[in-house]
Q: What sequence folds into this?
């Protein structure tokens, strides 16, 4: 399918016709870095979202869930970084409502078509003066090449902005999908729904009704953002929004070949950003793919892969260039997955390190060379069934501890 | 109950009459530190054990499980640190059998009365020459005050040896319970059974049959070793053995007041060592007690407490003296526990930081003073039921990463 779409250089949400964006310094961050972003669709757009499953969902998450439930079209998204507006009660929800109202007034649109997202410190009430200052600056700055500015403004501990876009032909008509994301910490794939501490805003000019949009987004999130882990923590603010403004005129209906082409292109953008989130994970120096294959059930494969991906002992070993397959075996063994340890093989980038539950005899000096690389794959073969699962993980370094022991926005 | 028993100064497994121990340099550790311990009971002792639930259980764990299943009395335990003898297949099991045979021959006892335990690197085959050297040195060194030498020889990344003993009167007869443990890393309370990366050897001169011994050990392990976490990883080698040689003549029968007194004294020793294992956890600078109270079910209370205790974001915040209650709330919220976030209170050493799901208004500068302390308690009150749970956790520091990125025994 990969030849059906192509990535656009410096792609972003505003690579998609009909979308504008901006990123400005509102004043949330002490560092003076950009901290308020606005995404605007000239036409009201069909919308879908996936959100954190944390019970302490932030006020903007609760607000957006309700908004999408009503089936509203969305025309703007106001995003701040610095204050999460989580654990802020009624006052927090009021702040989101006011943010939507002020954004709508500034843009001359309905408040019901404004989504809001936040990231930053939990438990602090929103500063509405800073929101207003952000809007005063961001509305006039809206631009059809502002996507990368917006991507920069939603960063917290991210070291690089993360945006992408692909172009795909749907029935001969060029369709674009753009996106931006922030990640870095509180990142974990989970049990159900979306489990990464992240914000992601996806735009497209395809013409798709929101139920199909929601279906595609949920399915693709399971195979992209839900496959990543940095620290095993899940955020109160995880939000992925997908807006389709229909500007291209390419109509996509459920069950058609066009829907499949679009869904694959959408997955490519989401996987591209998911991968980059892990690579830019807090203190991360490595991207490690964990594959569990031939497990007895999908659940066993997932439990086992996520156990390795979240093992602090494995993650610190990878940081230390230590191929220590014993820690991988231990993490598989305590994962809760059912398998026969005497049948289990482990390989690192194709190099066998454990065979049938014991040492494969590969000299450690050889295995070290693979673990030193910035990217490698650990494959665990249970030889025990037909079910596979994979996860992208990062290592845990001194910098992870530094960032999270010192983090005060 | 606490007035019914007293801790013995410099107590150890050999504080108990009839037990001898030694700890020697066999040659497993490159550092030249003691790495082989022997525990010997002059009389065959009734025995009970709890072990890791990891599917890749080490060879000595598999061996001891079988030994205890047969109901054998135990007279000696041979323990090495440096090689875990896990993921070593048939050859690993043969090595355990040989170790038991050589130990038995040296001591003039039956091989069926010798237990074996190992800790160290996973995946390396046992070096039987070093075992023999260890036995050559350890047997003549056996001494009735060798318990603390043995405690030192079972250490891996532990910074201090950990042993204890209590004396308790049972029907007017003085009874002693002694123990030694090693912990430090791969420590996590789990789902069922024993889930801490640890070795613990407990001795007593009470006269108790093994079924009652097993019952008491399992119950007490749930309330001591299964309440601790350092890094959320579970080991292949976790072993807790309890030997009762009956030398005191104090007979303890199920359901009697004597059994209750003994069980409480045993719990005191186990909790003492569990606590010290967390305090001496790899890179640990703090002991944090997590209490979840008034949850809807026992399962909800446990899920919530363990989620906070294992949250990397909480643990790094504690290291950084950051009271960041938002991270605690997030960890409760994604734990899978069912509760009403709008009723949830969080306090640190009695100081409210979150009230009914929102900021309690305590200035951060005040909360910081509590989190700076080497020990503090985080209490999460769900106001939603009658079930409580608690866990002891540690922080995650630069040293944790250093130890685990560099660890090669």
A:
């Amino acid at each position: 399918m990969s030849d059906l779409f192509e990535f656009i250089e410096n792609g972003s949400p505003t690579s998609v016709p009909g979308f504008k964006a901006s990123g400005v310094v509102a004043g949330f961050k002490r560092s003076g870095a950009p901290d308020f972003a606005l995404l605007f669709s000239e036409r009201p757009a069909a919308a879908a979202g996936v959100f954190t499953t944390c019970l302490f969902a932030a006020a903007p998450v609760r607000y957006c869930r309700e908004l999408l439930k009503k089936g509203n079209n969305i025309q703007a998204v106001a995003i701040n970084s610095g204050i999460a507006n989580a654990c802020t009660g009624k006052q927090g929800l009021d702040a989101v409502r006011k943010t939507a109202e002020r954004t709508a007034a500034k843009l001359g649109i309905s408040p019901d078509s404004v989504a809001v997202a936040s990231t930053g410190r939990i438990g602090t009430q929103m500063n509405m003066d800073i929101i207003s200052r952000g809007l005063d600056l961001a509305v006039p700055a809206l631009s059809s090449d502002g996507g990368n500015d917006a991507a920069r403004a939603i960063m917290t501990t991210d070291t690089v902005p993360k945006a992408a876009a692909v172009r795909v032909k749907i029935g001969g008509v060029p369709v674009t999908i753009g996106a931006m994301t922030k990640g870095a910490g509180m990142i974990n794939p989970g049990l159900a729904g979306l489990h990464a501490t992240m914000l992601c805003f996806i735009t497209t000019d395809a013409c798709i009704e929101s139920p199909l949009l929601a279906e595609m987004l949920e399915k693709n999130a399971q195979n992209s953002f839900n496959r990543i882990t940095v620290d095993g923590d899940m955020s109160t603010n995880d939000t992925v929004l997908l807006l389709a403004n229909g500007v291209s005129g390419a109509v996509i209906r459920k069950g058609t070949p066009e829907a499949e082409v679009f869904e694959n292109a959408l997955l490519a953008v989401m996987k591209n950003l998911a991968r980059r989130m892990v690579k830019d994970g807090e203190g991360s120096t490595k991207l490690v793919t964990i594959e569990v294959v031939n497990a007895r059930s999908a659940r066993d494969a997932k439990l086992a892969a996520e156990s390795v991906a979240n093992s602090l002992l494995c993650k610190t070993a990878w940081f230390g260039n230590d191929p220590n397959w014993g820690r991988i075996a231990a993490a598989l063994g305590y994962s809760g997955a059912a398998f026969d340890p005497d049948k289990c093989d482990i390989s690192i980038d194709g190099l066998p390190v454990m065979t049938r539950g014991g040492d494969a005899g590969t000299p450690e000096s050889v295995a070290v060379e693979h673990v030193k690389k910035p990217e490698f794959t650990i494959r665990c073969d249970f030889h025990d069934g037909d079910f596979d699962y994979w996860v992208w993980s990062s290592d845990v370094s001194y910098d992870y501890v530094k960032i999270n022991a010192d983090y005060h926005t």
